[in-house]
Amino acid sequence: MPVDFKTYDPDDDRSLQLTDGSNAHTILEFLADHPEQGFTPKEISETTDVPRGSVGTTLSRLHDRGLVRHKEPYWAIGDDDRLASYGAMVNGLAAAEDRFGEEEFGDWQETAVDPRTIDSEGDDG
Hints:
46% helix, Arc Repressor Mutant, subunit A, single chain, mainly alpha, two-stranded antiparallel sheet
């Protein structure tokens, strides 16, 4: 992704993109799937298909923000509570997809009951 070289600041939080499909997101998702294990940059690259030259830089930026831990030569997901929540969310979504397969959330939403409309006895009101 090209940047404006005059205004680019590598220490700016926006320089670390956590959007779906970004290197940082891919690496965090992989590490969150294995919270008790550490991996070398080579192992991360081979497993995630993030280019080897990008893994080290991305891990360093994630480390600077407290999102990963490092014990030479291994890297693991950080201890931050936000990451535990993220890992739980990712695993929960994967479990829901396994259980419900091809169902679409939009289909559920059409028949969902708004919890604010349920009275204290549990009846729709």
